[in-house]
Design goal:
Layout (H helix, E strand, L loop, with lengths): L12 E5 L4 E5 L49 E4 L13 E2 L10 E2 L3 E7 L13 H19 L6 E8 L11 E7 L4 H17 L3 H12 L3 E4 L3 E4 L10 E5 L11 H22 L5 E6 L14 E5 L2 E4 L2 E2 L5 H4 L3 E2 L3 H9 L10
Parallel strand pairs: 2-16
Antiparallel strand pairs: 1-2, 3-6, 4-5, 6-8, 7-8, 7-12, 9-10, 10-11, 11-13, 12-13, 14-15
Helix pairs in contact: 1-4
Length: about 350
């Protein structure tokens, strides 16, 4: 029997993620398998514009009843009342890696902040006015610039967990900023891979990736003058996307006002497409990847943001990271090209505004 020609749209294969130096297994032939497993109950979104019991609402008392929010009119940023990192952690350590110790710990400092996107409880990014999304980007920038001046802060991670499915504990539209006295492991790994690639090939990894995707076009979802949104070739989550700056900039701090406006534009456009995919407030974890703030030069850093949404087949069926994926390596069925085509074919008028 003659062997058929390999096609990654049909046959099992592995894809390489050069940012993380990891492989993922792709099984496109499984995409049509029937689903008889768990589904998620999606309650109707009937949130009012204001709720006096909303801990993040303007003028309301936060959890615990001690701190009261001001009557803010757009974005509002404050110290998280339940920080994962604390600025006054005493110095200390246990064990030495070089000595073969297996019980090793290091005290760490940091600060965690909360960014309320809007005073309105019932608005998320895709339904906000564009100028209000720009204010969110400005708030991120101001916080990045403020936190990088702290001598004990070496990395600032800005992120958003949207929806109960992603563990979001408060329905008020908001994001978080965790700034740490260390460079997190995944960030460090990516920086090392970006550096190694550019030193070997004399071009930035993500600079080349942007140009390659613009040439191939098959994984592009949307774009503007400053940013490209794609389902990355190595995507793990079903509808994972990357928003990458077309120009190599290292952080929000290096962006022009036009770039910040373009970032707000594409942030809103991709999240609108997400909501339109299954006609639901689409859950995801989103994070910005920027240069560290440790005072060192990081010429290989290239700004991008990642969206990791769990939904797979509908508003009620999500992807689970279990079994082989926990024990060996990540796996997906729907190919990146198929996911990009579905997202690309959606319009950018929110389904609740039609």
């Amino acid at each position: 029997m003659a062997e058929s020609e390999f096609e990654y749209s049909e046959h099992p294969h592995r894809r390489y993620n050069p940012l993380r130096g990891e492989w993922i297994l792709c099984s496109p032939h499984r995409a049509k398998r029937p689903w008889q497993g768990a589904t998620e109950e999606i309650p109707p979104d009937t949130r009012p514009e204001y709720d006096p019991n909303d801990y993040l609402g303007p003028g309301n008392f936060r959890s615990g009843g001690k701190a009261q929010n001001p009557n803010y009119a757009d974005t509002f940023v404050f110290d998280n009342d339940f920080m994962a990192l604390l600025p006054d952690t005493p110095d200390g350590s246990v064990g030495e890696i070089d000595k073969g110790d297996l019980f090793v710990a290091r005290a760490v400092k940091g600060r965690c902040r909360v960014v309320c996107f809007s005073p309105k409880l019932n608005l998320t990014i895709p339904e906000m006015e564009r100028e209000d999304v720009v204010k969110v980007v400005h708030a991120w920038t101001e916080e990045f610039l403020r936190l990088e001046k702290e001598p004990y802060i070496n990395y600032v991670q800005i992120f958003e967990n949207k929806g109960e499915m992603m563990g979001c504990s408060n329905p008020h539209p908001h994001g978080q900023i965790w700034s740490s006295g260390f460079i997190p492991a995944e960030v460090e790994k990516e920086l090392e891979n970006l550096k190694a690639y550019e030193e070997k090939h004399e071009v930035g990894m993500l600079e080349k990736y942007v140009q390659d995707e613009l040439t191939k076009k098959e994984r592009i979802v949307c774009q503007n003058d400053s940013f490209l949104c794609v389902v990355p070739f190595w995507a793990l989550w079903p509808f994972e996307t990357m928003v990458i700056s077309k120009e190599k900039v290292a952080s929000l701090a290096e962006m022009s006002e036009r770039m910040k406006e373009d970032l707000a534009d594409i942030y809103q456009r991709i999240t609108c497409r997400y909501d339109n995919l299954f006609k639901t407030s689409f859950p995801y974890s989103m994070g910005l990847k920027q240069r560290p703030t440790d005072g060192n030069s990081h010429p290989y850093s290239h700004f991008y943001m990642s969206f990791y949404p769990p939904l797979l087949r509908s508003a009620t069926v999500k992807k689970f990271m279990v079994g082989f994926e926990l024990l060996c390596e990540g796996q997906r069925d729907l190919t990146a090209e198929q996911a990009a085509e579905r997202l690309r074919n959606l319009d950018e008028v929110h389904y609740r505004k039609k």
